[in-house]
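Working notes for the structural subgroup meeting. M.R. asked for a predicted model of this chain before we commit to crystallization trials. I am recording the input and output together here so anyone reviewing the notebook later can reproduce the run.

Input as submitted:
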Amino acid sequence: MSDIAISTDKLTKRFGKFTAVDEISFEIPYGSIFGFLGANGAGKSTTIRMLCGILAPTSGNGKVGGFDVQTQPEQIKTVIGYVSQRFSLYSDLNVVENLTFYGQIYGLEGALLHNRIKEVLKLTGLDRFPQRLSGELSGGWKQKLAIANAILHKPKIIFLDEPTAGLDPLSRRAIWELLYQLAEGGTSLFVTTHYMEEAERCNTIAFISDGKLLKIGQPTALRQELRGQILEVTCQPLMKASHLFLTLEGVRGVTVYGTTLNLNVTDEKAVEARVKETAGREGITISSIKPIAASLEDVFSDLDTKKGSTDA
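Returned structure, recorded in token form:
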């Protein structure tokens, strides 16, 4: 058996003249967490639909669990689990009833189904309230039920499309602790997210924009490869400062973080002087300015800026 769970080679999907996914290539080994990052409309969900055997690619190749996405989509569906962005189980059934219903769809029955339900309830913590209606669960517990359902048939590959969207920080952390347990057991996880702090938890991440893969690598390596240096500027008014600082010589990009700006610069000292001079002239109040380590948000911003200049 190959140690590669998912592989693609120039996988492409077009809808008429629109290219949603443009010749993407990557490999994901078993037991790893692969983060797929990009804005809404970047091509994340279309990629997942092709890899899950739901949507036929226009061109290129791909394999999931050893099955070909072009010629064996039905076989792929038997070896994967899927957790959607929106809760899609039956709200008027309780936890056990939902798992029983979907377990039977997977072909599980009798003692095998009963024991497997007990296992996933314990793994996810849902054994605390097995008889609660799923519609009455909190957002975090609903997602745990969705994950429990997805792993009932013991798939070695799970796709999770924005699994923590809309959840509070504690629920998101609980979901990720569960994902780590699954990965440690040898399951490959393909996770889409727009939370950069969650991307830090992945073994490998890929940035996608307008259907194109911009970069793939480990989070630490991607931060170290970032071109330029980062200056954190705390100032007001923030958006006025953002627009003005972006025009300064030596500023490669600006990312907004709450009450601060991260400036990707070519020369810290020179740009700091230009920033202070511009702020004084334009009525911008600077509370602090200092060099900091790059974040994945800075990496993505730089990659997207680079792509934009290339496209232009």
